[in-house]
Amino acid sequence: MRVGERIEAGIRRLNDVIVDRPRAVVVAFLLLTAVFAGGIGLVSTETEPTEGFTEGLDEQEALDAVNEEFEDPFAADGESTQLIHVSGNALSKEALVRNLRVIERVESRESLRVADANGPATIVAQAIDPSATTVTEQRRALEGATETEVRRTVRQLDDANPAFSRSLATDFNPTSASASASITVVSHDVPSGFDDLAGLQTEVASIAEDEPADIRAFGTGIVNDETGQVIGDSLTIVMPVVVLLLLLFLVVAYRDPIDLSLGLLSLLMTVLWTFGFLGYSGIPFNQQMIAVPVLLLAVGVDFGIHIINRYREETVQGFEPVEAMRTANNQLMVAFVIVTVTTVFGFGANVISDLTPIRNLGLASAIGIVFTFLIFGLFLPAAKLEVDRLRERYGVPEFNSKPISSEDSTLGRLLAFPARASRYAPIAFVVVLLLTGGVAAAYGSGVDTSFEQEDFLPPAEQPEYVTSLPEPFAPGTYTVTETINLLEDRFATSQDQSVTIYVEGNFEENHALAALSQPNADPPDALAVGDGGSARPTSVATVIRSHAERDPEFGELVARNDRDGDGVPEQNLDRVYDELFASPSGDRAEQFLTPDRRNAKVEYAIDADASQAEAAADARAFADDFRYEATATGQLVVFDAITDIIFDSAIQGMILAVGLTAGFLVVAYAVLEGKPYLGIVNVFPILVAIAFLIGTMRALGLSLNALTATILSISIGLGIAYSVHATHRFIDEYNDGRNAYDAMLKTLSGTGGALLGSMLTTSLGTGALALAITPVLGDFGLLMALSVLYSFVFTVVALPPAVLLWERYRGAPAGRPAASSA
């Protein structure tokens, strides 16, 4: 017995179990559902939007070192909260007092674990009254001061305390003592492993909101809390729409409430099994994972419609239920296995990504597809037989058991039209498809790749359809994006406008600072923003020059050790550092040089016209010019590194998915049918669909990002189902003695109806993700809907001429009429 015959015999034995012992199969699957349901409570939610993408990157490790080693009063780390005060003048006496009132109320709550607070209000108050060490004393000192005294103090602080101006908006005017916004950092004394930072910071935010001023709290905990809220709100909005759309189209497809209930039960079981797997395996649920249940519902709908529709095709011909299901499942099981394997290849190809969230998405969706096959390939047929037996026993009528389409129906004739048209010139059809697909792919090769934190955050202004939703669908209030925009607009803290060079070496060596400054004269284009095309750095050398201008004694020390007169000393650096760190500029110096003088950071402004990729590439090349070991880092560089990996993941995943799918189909059709080249024919429509999808992405201005990067391989996995079902039905009809043309007519008029129903439900179901709150999910949903539409269209349009050419060049067997004479 050949391999194909053994496989077919195994499938028949499996189907015999399903149709002969349906009750046992149903009970077994219900028990497994209970087991998987136990894992749902173990599912964890990952709310840090970008954390998983940065793991293992050299640029991120350098950035972590920078954040850990250099003090930055603006860094809202895991133990601090930023209070951002927006006002007509955040330095007026009234604004400063209001700021201190908020801090005072925050400090009074023991649960908020306040260690200290630093900002313009505390600095001004202590300058007015150096004995005011508590927040209450500082508030009283400010309340007792005059507006004139406050303005004079602000002017003095601008000269004496550089950190003061850095806590103010870039429009800070020392002459008028005015600024449109300020930042105060509240530090929290929390133990190691503290995990309720979100609760702590949201409580601070509620206190700030009670003050009659625009004071808002911001920090990592608030960002993570809103990200988690976005996940929940997106599911609350998207899933009911998905279910409603599926329900509407399943009603049309099944036209029988009992069959509809079985289909919905199978879909529910698929989701329960998959979420249970996530819980037991420890894979966290994040924003990208919202796509998984939608994808599984799409494939499940496809399987369900095919099995019910094929079963009905047999029953309307007069076969008894058991024999009808045996025939239907014997034919469909092979197709289901092929679809499952190819879909696993498509979805699972993402596990090769170097980015953990994309790997997790690939693994979860691949496992979910296996569950979908088991439930719809084994449970649903068994449950359908068992329910039909009960229906017959209790006299429950059938509402509508006709298949979706047939050869004699208008829909059947419409779906078969491409086959009739391509009959006369299949070569021309294939050539046109190849040319148009090639043009679309060439155009789409210029699609952008991006990675931005804003992709994971809700827009600052929600569309009206979101804000007008009634409870319980109404989303929460989001502030993070608006606050981030405020910080970028008003403060010189945006990492999108600068890059950081992390330098490791001994900075007490003579000429160490000169070596740090030497590359600045001839930087790459993106960093050449200074006078004469030089770089514009901010480093410990900058602090030394600045302090030397304000402190004559320190200036003399620098001059004595500055041989070339450039303002940077070349010798006795240890003494220069000692004097600098002991001065009022010491806190500023600590932001660029570690106390042990072994590590330094240099911040470089970048050309506003330079793209992220250009700036990051130039920063990496510039780091190589340093005498010491140097690494380019910063948010811009890290995100660019992720962008490169995203692009590589998309291309590698697509190539792997296509290669595995094509190879498997060639082997499968060779083993099962002795027709290996049908595997290539099977892949042809999906390749054309992917080409058009890539072209559409560029035309719509959509980029490959943290989620849409998976669309290429996922589209292969999801779209190949349409071509596989059509090809498998074609083989059945072809093996019954029909020529390729007649077999394709029969296929498209019969299975084509199921494909159409599946396409409508799947495209609208996945397209519902476009309603999600975050852009990354909305773009993914739109592309998934287009992918499914293209897969269906090109299965109907591209498969018939390809099959006709396959028969022509394969040669029609003896006794079988050629397609051209049919």
Characteristic terms for this protein:
single chain, mainly alpha, Multidrug efflux transporter AcrB transmembrane fold, 31 helices, 8 strands, 63% helix, disordered C terminus, membrane, Putative lipid/cholesterol transport, cell membrane
Q: Can you tell me the residue ranges where pLDDT is under 50 for at least 5 consecutive residues? A: 73-78, 813-822
Architecture (CATH level 2) name of the largest domain? Up-down Bundle
Structural class: mainly alpha
| Beta-strand percentage range | 5-15%
Sheet with the most strands: spatial strand order: 2-3-1-4
CATH hierarchy class name of the largest domain: Mainly Alpha
Fraction of residues in helix: 55-70%
Number of strands: 8
Give the CATH superfamily of the largest domain.
Answer: Multidrug efflux transporter AcrB transmembrane domain
Give the mean pLDDT. Answer: 81
Number of helices: 31
The coarse silhouette is elongated
Tell me the domain tally: 4
What's the end-to-end separation, in Å?
34 Å
Summed up:
The protein is 63% helix and 6% strand. It has helices at 3-20, 22-37, 51-54, 58-69, 93-108, 120-128, 135-143, 147-160, 162-166, 197-210, 220-254, 257-281, 291-315, 321-348, 356-394, 410-415, 417-422, 426-444, 464-467, 480-490, 512-517, 540-550, 552-560, 573-581, 586-589, 612-623, 635-673, 678-700, 711-735, 740-767, 775-810; strands at residues 80-86, 114-118, 181-188, 214-218, 498-504, 537-538, 599-605, 629-633. α2 (22-37) packs across α12 (257-281) and α28 runs antiparallel to α29 (711-735).
